[in-house]
């Protein structure tokens, strides 16, 4: 994998995330798929999507991780939410810009040759190529993006199949 390939994949992932988030009605940010507190609300899921690649890349590359209250390790009832879809989209754009900048700043030699073993439970416990770890965090966003797609389907939101419609 080349840096450009990862950059292109991340950009496309952000575009799809933004399209999905834009479909969420503001009055459904408190909705969750089950009445149990172990499921995120739509707003909590969107909050997570607003930092799930760029800020995690920042953690990997610079050791600056999101605040503890912003990670998926928190209890669902305590996880922060977004107040509006517009604010979520602004935060997502800031995260996209951060990810793009971090990748530009990353020396090619580090991208190709550096290994990483992370401190977080969902990161490798033995050294892995840095480029694979960065790719993993884009896939992490895709995973949560898929959950948002399911939420939108359960809510009966129209226009969810935009990528199939051309």
Describe this structure in words.
This protein is an all-alpha fold and 166 residues long. It has a single domain (3-155), classed as dinb family like domain (Four Helix Bundle (Hemerythrin (Met), subunit A)), CATH 1.20.120.450. Helix content is 54%, strand content 2%. The chain has a two-stranded antiparallel ribbon. α2 (42-49) runs parallel beside α4 (85-105) and α2 (42-49) packs antiparallel against α6 (130-155). The radius of gyration is 16 Å and the shape is globular. The mean pLDDT is 88.
Describe what is shown at a glance.
It is built from 6 helices and 2 strands. By secondary structure, it is mainly α.
Helix/strand layout:
Layout: H1 3-22, H2 42-49, H3 54-62, H4 85-105, H5 108-113, E1 115-116, E2 128-129, H6 130-155
Antiparallel strand pairs: 1-2
Helix pairs in contact: 1-4, 1-6, 2-4, 2-6, 3-4
Main attributes?
166 residues, mainly alpha, Four Helix Bundle (Hemerythrin (Met), subunit A), 6 helices, 54% helix
What is the CATH homology-level superfamily?
dinb family like domain
Q: How many domains comprise the coordinates?
A: 1
CATH class: Mainly Alpha
Q: Which shape, going by the Cα principal axes?
A: globular
The number of helical runs is 6
Rg (CA only): 16 Å
- Detail the poorly predicted runs: none
Q: How much strand?
A: under 5%
